[in-house]
Every structure is written in C-alpha cells, then in structure tokens.
Amino acid sequence: MKGIEVGEDDIRIGAGVTYSEFALILRAHLPEAVDYLLRIGNWQVRNAGTIGGNIANGSPVGDLAPALIALGAELELRRADRLRTLPLEKFFLAYRVQDREPGEFVRRVTVPKLAPTQVFRCFKVSKRFDEDISAVMGAFTLTLDGHAIAAARVAFGGMAAVPKRAAETEAALVGARLDEPASWDEALTAITRAFQPITDQRASAAYRAVVARNLVFKALTEIAGGDGRTSRLVGQCVTLQAAE
C-alpha cells in the first residue's frame, strides 16, 4: 500500500503513498505534473494526505482524478484476496457514488508513462493559489505526429458531478495542428458543449465554462510553444528532497 514501483512502461503507486512521496517520483518521470501536485493543500496536507484517499473520497473537485484520467490510469481494488482492475474514469459513477463493492478498498493506481510522442499538461484554478479547493481542473494528454495531434485525452474536474473526460473535445483535437491556431477552433467550441457546470461558493457556472475553454487554449498554447512553464504563475519557492 505504501510502495511505488517504476516499471518500463508504467508507475504503480500504492494507495498509502503521500502527495509528497508521489511528487518525488513525478519529478523524474513526469515533471510537467509536479507544479500541479504542489498546488494541493499545504506541506502538512501533502506530507500526510494519500493518493488513495484523494481518489476514494470521490469528490468532483478532487485534484488528482482529472490528471490521472487524462494519463490513462487504472485503479486496482481489493476485497480480501480478490483483486479487480478498472480504468479510473469508470470508477466515478455519480456524485459521491463509485464502482466499489462492499468491502472493497483502493489498493493501487497504475499510471502509464508518456510515450516519446506524447505531451501532458494539467492546471488547477482556485480562488487562492495555495491551500484552496479547486474550482476547475483541466488535464490534457496529446499524442503528436509532428505538429499534428494524432490522439487526445482531456479530463476535467469541477465541471460535472464526477471527474469526466470531454469526448467531443478530444475528437475535435484530432487532426488539429499546433502550428495552426485556427485549427483549434472546433475543439474550443466543443468544450463549451461538454459540460453543464453548477454554480456554488467556489465559482459560477458561467465562470467555469469560460475557464474550461481557456484551459484548452492554454494547454495548446503551452504545448505549441514547447515550454510548460512560460504561462504559469509561480508560488512560493519549493525544493523537493528525498528523506535522508
């Protein structure tokens, strides 16, 4: 439950692994996600909170699920000596309802490594930069063929009752070119139809819809520019260091 296994093609993370421990692994294998992970809570939360706890909580604004779904993660559930594996996106059925049988618990998450032709971006939008619950999260994995997008996985949190992929937006991205921003228009329109967000204390439905569209544009702009940090605000200076 507390182990991390780095394989040739994937990373297997025990449910008891903390955010801070996960961040150390991501620094080497998925650096694009480290800044995102360091937006979760504060140091105390990241040192105590776990990957499995975030997922099992089932919140529609949980920070990890959209990123892991965009990466194609699989979830391993256990009950006694019975193991069951399913795509993470299939785990969330409705608001606070999960595909989890009585007695089952989250045992492990398996995250595929990016292929050389793939790029990843993820974003968290909240009222405060640190120590705040998200209003919207967006995560994007694109498979590239030169400047053309050959495949896409796009997932959002805070836009529906569960963390959810934007299938129409994914389809619209296929064939778009990073060097031709006009080819992004169909995807930018599709994301406005993908969700029916609610208004709550964190954000209005109208704000969420605008933010979702802007995050699609932001991801494409960053990937086209080749530098994932150029359009980011940077919080406090942090250094990740393994325990002695």
From TrEMBL:
It comes from uncultured Microvirga sp. GO terms for molecular function: FAD binding; xanthine dehydrogenase activity. Residues 1-116 form the FAD-binding PCMH-type domain. Pfam families: CO_deh_flav_C, FAD_binding_5. It is an enzyme of class 1 (oxidoreductase). This is Xanthine dehydrogenase iron-sulfur subunit / Xanthine dehydrogenase, FAD binding subunit. Its EC number is 1.17.1.4. The keyword Mitochondrion does not apply. InterPro entries: CO_DH_flav_C (IPR005107), CO_DH_flav_C_dom_sf (IPR036683), Diverse_Substr_Oxidored (IPR051312), FAD-bd_PCMH (IPR016166), FAD-bd_PCMH-like_sf (IPR036318), FAD-bd_PCMH_sub2 (IPR016169), Mopterin_DH_FAD-bd (IPR002346). Keywords: FAD, Flavoprotein, Oxidoreductase.
